[in-house]
Amino acid sequence: MPTAITTDVLIVGAGVAGLWLNARLRRLGYSTVLVERATLGGEQTIKSQGIIHGGTKYALHGALTGASEAIADMPRRWREAIDGSGELDLTRTRLLSDAHYLWSPGTLAGNLTSFFASKAVRGRVDQVKGEQLPPALQDRGFKGKVYRLAELVIDVPSLLANLAELAGDSLLAGEQIEPLREGDELVGLRVDGREIRAQRIVLSAGAGTEDLLHALGLKQPAMQTRPLHMVLAKGPNLKPLYAHCLGGGPKPRVTVTTHPAADGQWVWYLGGDIAEADGVAREPAAQIAAAQKEIASLLPWVDQGQVRWATLRVDRAEPAQSGLVRPDNAFLAEQQRLLVGWPTKLALAPDFSDRVLASLERDSVRPSAQSDLSGLPRPALGVPAWEQLLP
After folding, report:
1. pTM for the whole thing?
2. Which of 63, 162, 169, 385 could bridge to 92 as Cys pair (CB 3.0-4.6 Å)?
């Protein structure tokens, strides 16, 4: 087991950003070490809904925003990777749904029609009816309208397993991380006493990045967290649904994704406006009661008698923005050998890797040889929240 390692790129943080970047670098011939303190994707990544957004939900006022344009190409890139023809081979990642949907209660149908007739979203969506509706909406009681978005929903646990496989022997479990300097220059990190020297060091540890920066004696870039209070529902009678329900405002009233549990049942994972401001302030019991009321109002034909409920708090880590607004793009800051960033959304992991690769190209950082990494301790995969909270 090596006590000193030399590599091209040392990455800290094995969420989707670090794992995607690691796989792209390895495919391009770079040597890498990817360090993870806990489990692979075990924080923000495993808690995401798996939606590969294309930006339509950011145009609910009928006008394209910086956010919607920045993310517009992400579904194509992910789809090509899952098909095996893209920048990574994600053919072992499970596709939960080939599309995500927007639906409205009957009272908003008129507004929805005018919204989808606008230039902002023309060509991005198609209306669906009858047997084309998501299974959970195929009920006589459903009176709204539904539009199909060219966005996919992936099974995040299978994505993490796929990316871990692409990582080969580059993964390293490490808890104690300290700077490794020559004079005033950061040349690597000391991980559990093991020296790792690298041409570039990338911090992609999500909410953990702030502590890593402090360990390096740095205060910038500053980080913000935007909290969510998500809701989980599990029951034998739940049917697949991957959709945003519109509420007339700039954010979806509720966003539902459906995930397979180990026992064969489906789990609904609820986000959107219900998980934000008011939801964050609620205690778990009150948040569950609010979700039950919302589902009863929107989907009254769903029998909640056999459904079990739980909540999950999530802190979305991002670069600090004025007014705690959501950043439009992936973010990367550079300071000599150190690169620090956040993808800001699961879908933007390719954009984050683009920014790192552009930095390497600009600075003429080329692949070189790597130390033997055999025998290194390897981090385990993260476990989905529904398997922990609703076994």
Report:
1. 0.93
2. 162
